[in-house]
Design brief:
The chain has nine helices and six strands. The chain is of the alpha/beta class.
Length: 237
């Protein structure tokens, strides 16, 4: 069933448009497995968490970095952590970063290719604004994948100084659309970072429920609609 009285859309980017709802930790772990990195999933989780915290505190990502460069830097931090903590030998990990990054980059291209017809459809019907927790280079990433043209504006956490799950970042997106919050729908993969705060900001929500990582399943989700594939958005809007 389609949602009623929608005049504009706020899109999450990471793990929504680029992975069709799969958490990025799961995407990376799959690439680790394909590359045969000799570590278990729990050890990988340690490295992933370390890497995300490191990137949040250090300006490693440059505004000009495309997504392949983001992946190369991200995986290098993870693999260096594993080597430094004796989880992986130094001689083992020299080539892994490039292999993992290329696998993930190809996966993103495949998912974006699948998402593009839906974005074309929605772009013709609604104004779209991107609301993303990112590193200050999301515009470069969007340009790299020919996605920037879909969005009339971008609200990026590293630029505006507000991060999800703060509802204020969605309120900023609503202001960029120039619409009442109740006429805006937020589309995102994370229940805690997208759906809950967007609801608190007064927006309607569509939860792209894919393969999560550590999010606890909500007993009574507040999402106005739940989908499991990006393509289902055409049925909802």
């Amino acid at each position: 069933m389609k949602l009623n009285d929608i005049q504009g859309i706020l899109f999450d980017y990471g793990a929504t448009i680029d992975t069709n709802g799969t958490h990025w930790a799961e995407v990376l772990w799959k690439a680790y497995e394909q590359t045969k990195v000799p570590v278990g999933k729990e050890i990988f989780r340690e490295a992933y968490v370390y890497g995300e915290r490191y990137l949040a505190l250090h300006p490693v990502i440059e505004p000009s970095d495309n997504f392949l460069m983001v992946l190369l830097k991200k995986t290098k931090i993870q693999l260096d952590y594993l080597a430094e903590n004796h989880r992986l030998s130094e001689k083992d990990h020299s080539d892994y970063s490039e292999q993992i990054s290329k696998i993930c980059y190809r996966e993103v291209i495949k998912n974006i290719t699948g998402a593009r017809p839906v974005l074309d459809y929605l772009y013709e019907k609604y104004p779209l604004v991107l609301v993303s927790n990112f590193y200050g280079n999301v515009e470069t990433v969007l340009e790299d994948f020919d996605l920037k043209r879909y969005f009339k504006d971008i609200v990026e956490s590293a630029v505006v100084g507000v991060r999800k799950p703060d509802p204020e970042i969605f309120s900023l997106g609503v202001k960029r659309l120039g619409l009442p919050a109740q006429q805006v729908v937020v589309i995102g993969d994370s229940y805690t970072k997208d759906i809950l705060p967007a609801s608190k900001a007064g927006c309607k929500t569509i939860w792209l429920k894919g393969k999560a990582w550590e999010e606890k399943e909500p007993e009574n989700p507040v999402a106005d609609s739940i989908i499991t594939d990006f393509a289902e958005l055409r049925e909802k809007l």
